[in-house]
Specification:
There is one protein chain. The chain has helices spanning 2-8, 11-31, 36-42, 47-75, 78-94, 106-139, 143-168, 172-188, 200-205, 210-213, 216-237, 239-245, 253-262, 265-269, 271-277, 280-300, 305-333, 339-368, 370-393. By secondary structure, the protein is mostly helical. Helix 18 (339-368) runs antiparallel to helix 19.
Length: 406
Amino acid sequence: MIKRLFSRLDYHGRQALILTGVNSLFWFSWAFSSYQTIYLQGIGFSASQLGVMNALTSAFSIASVAFWGMVSDRMGSLRKVLITVLVGGSLLFALIPQIPTNLPFSTLLLFLLLPLVYFFRGSMSVYAENILVRNSNELHLNFGLLRSVGSFLYTVGSIIASVSLSFVGVPNTFWLTGLLTVPVIVLTFFARDPSAAPAVKEKKQKLHLGELFHNKAYVSFLIFGFLFYIAVNCEGSFLPYFISDAGIPSERYGIVLAYRALFEIPFLLLMVRLRRKFPLRILVIASAVLMATECLGLGLWADSLPSMLLCCTFFGLGNGLCIGSSLNYVYELAPPHLKASAQAFFSAVSSIAGILGNLGGGVVYDAVGSKAFYLLVALIYFVSVGVFLLSFLGGNKKGKPLAQAS
């Protein structure tokens, strides 16, 4: 029956189903990988140590997205790169609990080996999103609708992981993540490879990356992204410590993630209408303001699971706007032969921000405590918004994109 229905769909319909399957099943599996911080916290990592570890993994993610982005542009195949990072990242991630934790040098061993996992894992979510964004633009698919399925399955996965954590155990979530990634890898083989530039032979040998950095709109967005992702990394990395300080059981962490993901869906479903009414840069700004509002709530009054969830509503809404607008904004600004590199450099900037956010964030969190920490994070969000506003109000209103989206 399913095979018969699938055969009746045209090419665009079949690809919409395949791409939705790739992206949504990826986020379902990713929900089970959200307990790395809980795992490290459980074996004795302080907030400062966690910050250093996350900074190291962010550094390897920079190398990862830059390297695989250039490989994708040179090969002219995003699909092959996605398969490679999915296989490598999920396999290595599954082996993390096998690193001994009861030896005198176990902490050093984790600091040496765990970041290496992120040479693959650091690019997994980037290219799982990238293949959906680019195909949605090229095939004229509704990205917000297709991506909302990913948020929904992430919500479902987070709830399942949270409920089952007490008898599954945190260490087992690592290999479960790898197992759940297998269907994603299989589906990716059938996904459409986004188009490369027409003159690929000449372009492959020499990528003119200067085209990106001569565009003021792209550079301005990189600056905004740098500040924005410092705040994002600070907000997300130390949320388990906030939960612990508030006296909330760590098992509820998955519920918090599920709740936030659920509220990504409304704006993703409305993204087509929103894009008709507002420029993408306005939607990006709105996303940052909403995420800052969550941090204000955490810093001022959240002290229980219900009050924390109320604050997280704003993060979920803001993240939905961010998912639907930021990658598409980068896509608009990049020429056809540099779209993967443009996404890769933007991701690299976010990883650099992750280094600073985690290194500084861990120290600041230990020094000032959870409430003051999240007020500072809210301030960074608002500064990023101010910088971005100034960039296009000061004479760059249209952004002069290098290439319009399809």
